[in-house]
Inverse folding.
């Protein structure tokens, strides 16, 4: 601070004009420097303030939508896998390549057709849960398998290039599909047919369901997410997933962080299916890729344990650019030093 008055006398002696002039100049310099210093300090403060990133907004009530989007993606991909996975294609080939069935169709021997269909459905290690064979015109000849079936796959039976019949098959029943959703996502699931409740894990079940609606049971509130898989041999079903209302600490996070947390939970749920997990990292990675549509890796430090070619740097969370795309990273650690990474396309 510059003094209010300047004492030009020292120890009773007079100060010369030159000395006074020098003192005045010195004071002026101090004033300028002091003012300039305050300006620089303010400018620096403004620069720091403007360069500090604004923290992302809390996801709030939209957290339920963010989690439902993750859970719904997994359920949809499980269903699509039942329709067109490699395992399903192999089972279709068992049917279209059955000489016993094709021979029975060419002879129009319905009893032989039934026997062939029964043998196909109950062959050990094949995963066909129901098979319906009809004439080319759609008249049923044999229908073997369980009563509640989803994901029908339709095809034509040919013998020497000529169509001799048609078939509808499936590799999954309703109960099995619901169990997979619960095991992969960890939420209650109910199934409805013709507007009526058929089976499920949340009971007493609501009389009707619709996506976006809320439902309260035993003091817990759920958001409903409804999928419409195809029934066997035709028609549709309603599969209702009940997403619990997120906790306050979850809603305080950004929506990107909420999604990442939901994906991390999926990793943990899927991993719980493998015993022992340490000997099943390859199976875990394959299942995660199939059920999420993303890319999965297992690492111990920098050492790759399972998964395709991965980025050199893998953070436990956040976003990265890999192969020309932006990916969100979620992860889960089954044991010290080992981490499972899941990359999903950034939204």
């Amino acid at each position: 601070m510059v003094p209010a008055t300047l004492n030009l006398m020292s120890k009773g002696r007079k100060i010369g004009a030159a000395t006074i002039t020098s003192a005045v100049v010195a004071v002026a310099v101090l004033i300028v420097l002091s003012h300039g210093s305050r300006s620089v300090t303010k400018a620096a403060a403004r620069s720091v303030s403007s360069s500090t990133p604004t923290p992302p907004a809390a996801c709030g009530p939209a957290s339920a939508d963010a989690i439902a989007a993750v859970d719904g993606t997994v359920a949809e991909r499980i269903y699509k896998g039942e329709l067109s996975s490699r395992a399903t294609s192999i089972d279709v080939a068992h049917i279209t390549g059955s000489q016993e069935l094709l021979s029975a169709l060419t002879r129009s021997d319905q009893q032989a057709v039934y026997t062939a269909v029964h043998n196909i459905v109950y062959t050990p290690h094949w995963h066909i849960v129901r098979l319906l064979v009809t004439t080319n015109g759609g008249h049923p000849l044999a229908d073997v398998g369980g009563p509640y079936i989803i994901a029908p796959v339709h095809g034509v039976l040919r013998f020497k290039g000529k169509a001799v019949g048609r078939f509808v098959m499936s590799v999954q029943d309703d109960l099995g599909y619901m169990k997979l959703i619960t095991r992969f996502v960890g939420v209650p699931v109910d199934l409805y047919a013709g507007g009526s409740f058929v089976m499920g894990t949340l009971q007493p079940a609501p009389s009707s369901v619709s996506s976006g609606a809320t439902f309260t049971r035993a003091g817990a509130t759920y958001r409903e997410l409804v999928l419409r898989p195809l029934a066997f041999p035709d028609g549709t079903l309603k599969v209702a997933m009940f997403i619990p209302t997120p906790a306050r600490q979850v809603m305080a996070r950004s929506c990107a962080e909420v999604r990442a947390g939901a994906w991390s939970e999926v990793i943990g749920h899927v991993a719980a299916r493998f015993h022992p997990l340490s000997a099943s990292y390859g199976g875990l990675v394959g299942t995660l890729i199939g059920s999420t549509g993303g890319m999965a890796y297992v690492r111990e430090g920098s050492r790759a344990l399972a998964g395709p070619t991965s980025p050199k740097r893998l953070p436990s969370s956040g976003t990265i650019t890999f192969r020309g795309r932006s990916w969100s990273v979620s992860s889960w650690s089954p044991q010290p030093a080992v981490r499972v990474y899941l990359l999903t396309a950034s939204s």
Notes: The chain has a mean pLDDT of 87. Residues 253-347 form one domain.
